[in-house]
Amino acid sequence: MENIAVLGAGSWGTALALVLADNGHHVRLWGHRTEQINEINEKRTNEKYLPGVRLPDAIIGYDDLCAALDDVAIVVLAVPTKAIRTVLADVRACLAKPITVVAVSKGIEPGTHKRVSEMVAEEMGEWLADVVVLSGPSHAEEVVLRHPTTVAVSSPNMEAARRIQDIFMNHHYFRVYTNPDLIGVEVGGALKNIIALAAGISDGLGYGDNAKAALITRGLAEIARLGCALGANPLTFAGLTGVGDLIVTCTSVHSRNWRAGYMLGQGKKLDKVLESMGMVVEGVRTTKAAYELANELGVKMPITEALYEVLFAGKDPKEAVDSLMARGKKEEMDDLNNIFAKQE
Fold first, then answer.
1. Residues with catalytic roles
2. Residue 62 assigned ligand-binding role
3. Beta strands, E only, the chain
4. CATH code for 183-343?
5. Would you list the domain boundaries of the chain?
6. Is there a binding annotation on residue 282?
7. pLDDT tens column, 182-210
8. Fewer CB atoms inside 10 A, N or C side of the chain?
9. What is the CATH number of domain 3-178?
């Protein structure tokens, strides 16, 4: 059994800590709020993020980062993407030997357009043994109830990915696949949050299932276009970290991106929406990064462009939807034909 540190005591970090504890590992769950860590250790709960859930005794909370990392070879990185570089700088200062980082946050960095694994590699340098990405359709609220969940892991070193697969695999409720397409796994996991925001806006406007089905389907085409322009395998987007993650994030009330979009569709302003959420909405930051990256690469992403205008240019959500519907005629299969032609 392993000593494993999980950095980030939000809903997803806590849920993965529970999986690891169920699998017999000794888990150190780090968070920066002492009050929260005391609650985890004394009451075995994390009520702000996962109300009503009792945490296994094998999970020990830490507010001291270096203590949490002492003699640990595997670190699960579950902090928001905007905090990754800052947290990893602190991690480096605590280490005596290189570690394997399992990145479970989903996003693309504005400005640099780096994926999470690239940010980890840059920040960790010689202190990084391996980086592994874990992604897929997985709401923390259902994982902690031990409902059946399936995810995928990927890495530049697939031996490391298989090791992490073994560590996380729980044959009762948490199934883990491997996928060698690191770019596709990360792009699918990041960009689905954009489409979930758009789906929430559509629902908030009262447009119903027809509109949402169209957003999901055409959103998947956008994700695949950008992903393949970056070197991803198009088939990845038909898998767990593509259409699987897209479906669950666009259709579930557990999705914070969908909930944020829903409030926007009802007319609430972005700053008020984010303030009321109480948790990070990764899709907002990723929309900015994907918009910039698509322009840089010359990739057409009309849903992302429309959402960018709503979030950052003050466009009315209904006007944004109307502009999408008013676009010129197209052949539906052009996207897929072009994508697969580039793979030949």
1. 192
2. no
3. 3-7, 26-30, 59-62, 74-77, 99-103, 128-135, 149-154, 174-178
4. 1.10.1040.10
5. 3-178, 183-343
6. yes
7. 999 999 999 999 999 999 999 999 999 99
8. C
9. 3.40.50.720
